[in-house]
Amino acid sequence: MDTPAEPLPCPAPAPLAARLCWRALTAADVPAVVEVEKTAHAHPWRARHFEDSLAAGYWMRLLALRPDAGADPPHWVHSPTTPEGHWLLGYLVAMPGVDEGHLLDVTVAPTHQRQGWGRWLLHALAHWGRAQRYAHLWLEVRRSNAPARALYQRCGWVEVGVRKNYYPDTAQRREDAIVMRLDMGEHCAPTTVRSNPTACP
Ligand SMILES: CC(C)(COP(=O)(O)OP(=O)(O)OC[C@H]1O[C@@H](n2cnc3c(N)ncnc32)[C@H](O)[C@@H]1OP(=O)(O)O)[C@@H](O)C(=O)NCCC(=O)NCCS
């Protein structure tokens, strides 16, 4: 059975909004999500990480786009789809706490990157954090992950510390984590999702 869609937590341009599906990520989505992980991350989560997060009751949400045969570019043909056959745009995993939440994963499928979906997802996360009445959200990001660090800064997150050698890198080396915090008063400027995804490279 399809997982019910939820109201969109952030706006999107009219032609796209009608095709967007925002809903809980479920066990049935894990194969497609893992497919995206492998292409988007140098150190991807495995199925087990998503299954453990589901079992732990973490906040896991997925954003997908209903296909429009007349509008979608042919290069999307190899993009992962959800069990309903929607293009998987991206997803979030966040760990709820008592007074604050912790972002564990945010990913936009490579075919759909640089179109504003990363900002959209972080808007949705901040919306969730405010609804939980959190004072802050936290995350760690690899020092070398310049796109993600730029995205977070753009969305009001501030770098507040470093965890030395936090992440495994190669067999011989580890990588620092930059610790970032979002104060719930802060938020992105209005999102700029492109209204015509076919125009994207
Ligand atoms: C990080 C990530 C989520 C960004 O998603 P996205 O949809 O491409 O980002 P957006 O289009 O919303 O970009 C928003 C801002 O982020 C920054 N940004 C995003 N990608 C960038 C890149 N490749 N280089 C530099 N800045 C980048 C820019 O400031 C951008 O604003 P601009 O487009 O006005 O310049 C995406 O690159 C991704 O999924 N990466 C792999 C997974 C990952 O590293 N996740 C984070 C750690 S868990």
From TrEMBL:
Name the UniProt key words of this record, in alphabetical order. Answer: Acyltransferase, Cytoplasm, Ribonucleoprotein, Ribosomal protein, Transferase
**Principal subcellular localization:** cytoplasm
Q: A Pfam family in this protein?
A: Acetyltransf_1
Subcellular location(s): the record lists:
Cytoplasm
GO cellular component terms, alphabetically, are: cytoplasm; ribosome
According to its UniProt record, this protein's enzyme class is: transferase
KW Acyltransferase (keyword) present: yes
**Which InterPro entries does this entry report, sorted A to Z?**
Acyl_CoA_acyltransferase (IPR016181), GNAT_dom (IPR000182), RimI (IPR043690), YpeA/RimI_acetyltransf (IPR050680)
Q: Where does acetyl-CoA bind?
A: 145
Its Gene Ontology molecular function terms? protein-N-terminal-alanine acetyltransferase activity
EC number(s) given by UniProt: 2.3.1.266
The active site annotation covers 140 (proton acceptor), 152 (proton donor)
Which stretches are annotated as coiled coil? Answer: none
Please state every residue range assigned to the domain named N-acetyltransferase: 20-185
Q: Which reaction does it catalyse?
A: N-terminal L-alanyl-[ribosomal protein bS18] + acetyl-CoA = N-terminal N(alpha)-acetyl-L-alanyl-[ribosomal protein bS18] + CoA + H(+)
Report the CDD domains cross-referenced here: NAT_SF
Presence of the UniProt keyword Ligase in the record = no
HAMAP family membership = RimI
Function comment: Acetylates the N-terminal alanine of ribosomal protein bS18.
Its family? Belongs to the acetyltransferase family. RimI subfamily.
PANTHER family for this protein: ACETYLTRANSFERASE (PTHR43420), ACETYLTRANSFERASE YPEA (PTHR43420:SF44)
- Recorded protein name is [Ribosomal protein bS18]-alanine N-acetyltransferase
Q: Can you name the source organism?
A: Tepidimonas ignava
